[in-house]
Recover the amino acids of this structure.
């Protein structure tokens, strides 16, 4: 049998067995049909991506965030400093501080530290953050706020939640030292205040963000954002953004962008964490913990290779063929790929070859021919390498750096991936003067592509309201109480691998069955 016959047979089996990824129709809100309303002008830098120094630095601090998480934990022995140390101790080898799991708890077949079976760098220089004070201003280790971000465009069309609200912090040392940069972003998924009303239940949250455009006084905007993030609006059923459960199982996440100097090799890397309340199965004592998880939309690079060392590669490549249509959408903000978590790595490297998908894919003639045949069948005017470059752009490493330059930024069909600021999309190193106020600089990708898309989605949502009130919205809202983080029972000797796997499993179960389409389209990333 010829190679072409083998590929044709492989395609036939894959496409018969793979799920059809048809476009989902938008559900009708429970409140009935929608009626158009006039939407006033919105200032995206007030209502979507807030980087004004006078606003963000008055609105919130890292100490505010960590203190709120500790208060939500109900753990009497936990402090902001201790929770901070536990977080970064996950990047140190055992025994570390003895606060939980460490990065060498799981080893791969070669005896190297791993997460989800894929290698991770362990230890990392960032593990040294267990010894610093991140809360005192005007010190190198202080983490200053850079941006407050409205991501209501990530709200699923069934109204299961109201998208995300984010806050970005950067280590102060990075403002002047390229070799001492570390950024963290808290990405809270906001519960729907009126879930019985579907997507219309998110209108109160949307109105808050919209109203910021009308407030000219930076101090008033800062006060409003501080209350929204740390207190919420209980009388309207809106919980505070910063709440432990909003970063936990079935909800949001915390991501890092790491590049600190130290005794270990300095590698630019991005990682992802969840908050979980871990309870000892024997004595029922519970503690809130940061748990390293896989980086989403970030398949391990060697899975694209012709002769990989990982046995999951053939399964990944069969799955990848089912994603051709999704990856081929002719819109920077619309193409995507579904990546089952079993293929995601525990780190996304913006240096070196690990995340260089095109290099791994280049010699893989069999996958190349299978993708080429599928593209021809669908009459899609792209080449296989365009699909792989699009997958690279969807990864953290690609979005932040690897997709900046040619040929990686050539996505076919006239699309080019937009530029980051080399390392970040909002910089602690540079500012812009906008309407007389200093703002932290944002990337061309944000300014020219992503924010305009989010702006359009937000305005579209605001432009249509239910023609009659949803019953849940017409009744007085009761104050929302902070929801406790979902608890997991674990054994006292559970390893990082076991805890991470259980967190990821429960997280996936809680998210299963919801609408894949969001206000901003089918891709819940960036």
């Amino acid at each position: 049998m010829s190679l072409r016959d083998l590929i044709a047979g492989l395609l036939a089996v894959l496409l018969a067995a793979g799920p059809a990824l048809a476009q989902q129709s938008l559900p009708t809100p429970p409140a009935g049909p929608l009626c158009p309303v006039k939407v006033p002008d919105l200032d995206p830098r007030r209502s979507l991506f807030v980087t004004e120094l006078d606003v963000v630095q008055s609105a919130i601090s890292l100490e505010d965030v960590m203190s709120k998480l500790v208060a939500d934990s109900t753990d009497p022995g936990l402090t902001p400093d201790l929770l901070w140390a536990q977080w970064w101790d996950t990047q140190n080898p055992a025994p570390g501080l003895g606060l939980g799991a460490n990065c060498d708890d799981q080893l791969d077949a070669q005896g190297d530290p791993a997460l989800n079976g894929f290698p991770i760098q362990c230890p990392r220089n960032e593990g040294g953050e267990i010894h610093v004070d991140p809360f005192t201003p005007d010190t190198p280790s202080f983490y200053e706020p850079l941006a407050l971000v409205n991501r209501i465009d990530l709200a699923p069309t069934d109204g299961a939640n109201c998208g995300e609200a984010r806050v970005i912090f950067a280590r102060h040392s990075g403002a002047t030292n390229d070799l001492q940069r570390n950024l963290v972003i808290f990405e809270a998924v906001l519960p729907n205040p009126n879930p019985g009303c579907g997507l219309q239940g998110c209108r109160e949250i949307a109105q808050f963000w919209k109203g910021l455009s009308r407030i000219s006084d930076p101090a008033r905007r800062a006060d409003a954002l501080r209350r929204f993030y740390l207190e919420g609006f209980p009388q309207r059923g809106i919980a505070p953004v910063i709440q432990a459960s909003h970063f936990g199982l079935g909800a949001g996440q915390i991501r890092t962008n790491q590049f600190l100097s130290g005794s270990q090799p300095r590698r630019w890397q991005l990682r992802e964490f969840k908050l979980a309340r871990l309870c000892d199965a024997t004595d029922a004592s519970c503690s809130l913990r940061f748990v390293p998880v896989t980086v989403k939309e970030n398949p391990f690079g060697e899975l694209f290779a012709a002769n990989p060392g990982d046995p999951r590669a053939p399964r990944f490549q069969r799955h990848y063929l089912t994603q051709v249509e999704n990856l081929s959408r002719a819109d920077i903000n619309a193409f995507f790929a579904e990546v089952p978590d079993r293929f995601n790595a525990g780190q996304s490297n913006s240096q070196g070859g690990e995340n260089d998908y095109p290099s791994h894919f280049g010699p893989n003639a069999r996958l190349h021919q299978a993708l080429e045949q599928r593209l021809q069948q669908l009459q899609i005017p792209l080449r296989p390498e365009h699909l792989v470059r699009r997958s690279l752009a969807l990864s953290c490493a690609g979005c932040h750096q690897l997709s900046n330059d040619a040929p990686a930024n050539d996505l076919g069909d006239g699309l080019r991936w937009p530029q980051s600021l080399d390392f970040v999309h909002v910089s602690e190193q540079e500012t812009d003067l906008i309407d007389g106020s200093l703002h932290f600089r944002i990337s061309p990708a944000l300014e020219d592509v992503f924010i305009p898309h989010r702006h359009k989605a937000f305005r579209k949502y605001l432009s249509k309201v239910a023609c009659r009130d949803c019953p849940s919205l017409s009744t007085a809202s009761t104050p929302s109480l902070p929801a406790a983080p979902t608890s997991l029972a674990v054994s006292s000797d559970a390893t990082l691998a076991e805890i991470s796997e259980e967190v990821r499993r429960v997280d996936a179960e809680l998210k299963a069955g919801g609408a894949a389409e969001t206000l901003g389209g089918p891709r819940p990333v960036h």
User: Anything to note?
Assistant: The longest helix spans residues 444-462. DSSP finds 16 helices and 17 strands in the chain. The two ends are 44 Å apart (CA to CA).
